[in-house]
Amino acid sequence: MSQSVRRRLALASAVVAATTVAVAVTSTAGAFDNADKAKAAIQSGKAKNVILLIGDGMGDSEITLARDYTVGADGRLNMDKFPLTGSYTTYAVHADGTPDYVTDSAASGTGWATGVKTVNGRISKTPGTDKAVPTLLELAQKKGYATGSVTTAELTDATPAVLASHATDRSCQGPADMAKCPADRIAAGGPGSIAEQSVSHKVDVLFGGGQQRFDQTITDGRYKGLTVTQKAKKLGYQVVTDKNGLQGAKANKPVLGLFATGNVPVEWTGKAAAVGGTDPQRCTTSNPARPATTPSLADTAAKAIELLEAKQKAKHSKQGFFLQIEGASIDKQDHAADPCGQIGETAAFDRAVKLARAYAAKHPDTLVVTTADHGHTSQIVPLEATPPGLSSTLVTNEGQQLKVNYSTNTPGLSQEHTGVQVRIAAQGPQAFRVLGITNQTDLFTTISEALRLR
After folding, report:
1. Residue ranges in the chain modelled with pLDDT below 70
2. Which helix (H) or strand (E) element contains residue 2?
């Protein structure tokens, strides 16, 4: 064990010891339980598997809103039940390395995927020189781990893209979308679009939306004239598009799941926030625009774990898997000032958290981390408040009214991210590294150390 790890373990133990003392004086049995769980959770050593769960745009306000609405102010979501919790900073950088205080998903994802901060809009490349930086997924593949990426966004969106591609700009999602990435074009000697790179990496499991990107025709190189989906099939991928196809997928070949033309439709609907507010509303928990054949995030996460585990067992591999799971539309509904859509996507993400923690309970050599990429706009405000922007009043499952405000941009424009630090929580080997206030890039180190990637 390295000296730095010993120091971190000692600090973590001291934190828990102090917590126990404080709890003994002031708190209830529940807090005693938390201290005991924290003590038991502080462990070093190698992880066989890592499950990283990203709630896109899921700051503390978004978590609190979902908690208040679904399980009550004194209730707890699954993501609230991790034994070790900290916060990390999320800023991006300018090309010269100076801080850009509000990040986008591309720069933030690059931070944990590579350990390097970059400029907003860039995918796993350096901020000044625009050079590709190895990602956690690439390093895990080299060490013999099975790998997967699951999202409710397009598979070519920023958060999944940071794992299996390198692009000057996040907009370069398909072969027809390369205007901002001239040096990344295959004709220029580059790796091609995000969609092309993702299947070229032969990631074992790719589940999400974005069929429109994979249906684009490749314009240069070995696969010229084929769509990206056809290229994937040439590379041995099984391609599935609905629940039945998902359940029928086998572990003997990589799987590309494309469950929507664009982003996967959200689970809940309701009235968007409005200037002057809305009448008190209950959210509709079934979206008529979401096809019944669309798998949930928990469905795709469960199948991904099943496939990755089966692949390694078939190979008799001592290594396990690395899997990233993203609840993408928490962010997208926040941008749209749609509290019901946002809460529904947070609840769907929380079910995936429950599934991951249940797997880890049976496989304690699994590191599970849940966090966000950045904060967002929603704020819970007093009922008597009259926000200058958009607001909505909800009637929670407790039968109480709750007002949520969106005021990070002019009404009619997309609401904006915020530069706030966000929660990170974990259990399993190396989970103690999330304690305190860390940097987003430290998550790269936590996972690298857990899987012994370096």
Report:
1. 1-35
2. none
